[in-house]
Q: What sequence folds into this?
């Protein structure tokens, strides 16, 4: 099965690879970003803030992504939906994380994004 190719799927791959330069290429400099993780709401109005104030907290230096397990995309009217699941190892153990995101774009860049995250859940396979 071929991997989906879309802005949302590209974001998922860049995020889990901690490829901040690629994330910055994908996001509009004035992106409208909001997210919900298990213990916090996140907001940003710039791509730089998304990368250097949010994503770097979601995946810290000690978090090693072992596998991007699943990426799926679909359209909901004029918005793309992307779901992705990945496995992480850090000093506290092994975890599975899933996020669902909705994105809109203009000019080939994501200018609006909403994300919901499962949080780091214990990896039963570990």
A:
């Amino acid at each position: 099965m071929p991997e989906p190719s879309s802005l949302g799927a590209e974001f998922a791959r860049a995020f889990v690879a901690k490829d901040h330069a690629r994330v910055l290429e994908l996001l509009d400099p004035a992106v409208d970003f909001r997210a919900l993780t298990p213990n916090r709401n996140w907001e940003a109005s710039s791509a730089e803030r998304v990368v250097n104030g949010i994503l770097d907290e979601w995946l810290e230096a000690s978090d090693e992504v072992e596998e991007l397990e699943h990426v799926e995309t679909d359209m909901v009217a004029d918005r793309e939906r992307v779901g992705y699941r990945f496995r992480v190892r850090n000093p506290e153990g092994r975890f599975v994380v899933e996020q669902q995101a909705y994105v809109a774009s203009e000019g080939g860049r994501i200018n609006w994004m909403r994300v919901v995250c499962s949080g780091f859940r214990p990896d039963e396979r570990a």
